[in-house]
Amino acid sequence: MLIIGIAGGTGSGKTTVVHQIMNELPETEVGIISQDSYYKANDHLNMDERALINFDHPRAIDFDLLCSDLKDLKAGNSINQPVYSFVHHNRTDDYILTHPRKVMIVEGILILTNPELRNLFDIKIFVHADSDERLIRRLKRDIVERGRDMDEVLHRYQTTLKPMHEQFIEPSKAYADIIIPNDKYNTVAIDIVRTVINKKIND
Fold it and tell me: Does residue 37 register a pLDDT over 60?
């Protein structure tokens, strides 16, 4: 199994890069795991307390479970991938049954900050985008998809997202094997990654 980690700041375009890489690859051979599914369960907190959690700090992620699930997949076992609700800031009771694939793509803003998780990746990718562009994308996503208002999103960006990006996410770029600038469609980088995946699938 080839495991690829794709990191980058919030709104950097990681999902777009994932789709570009998967384009024309056999769907049955490639699986995706999102870091967002592995936020820790917060059943012990009420809604107001959960809303105050710093979701852009590595301690918000259940890296132990994520690493354990990846190891199970690599061993040929299926896993129950958690489902997280950003509306309720908590894990749901649902799971996504995820089967082993020849290639697993793990994407998330903090995945290169954890040494154990990094060691499980065969290829580490960091998607870079301009900070203004990332803010615009985050505004659009949180307002449309997550029911936030603009003041709330901007406040969170200034007090949490920006400082956490500078403290944890941007420095993790140093661990990347490939850095993809997402200011434009980077065909060379995408083609290189796709070639490596195709070789793995065809071996």
Answer: yes
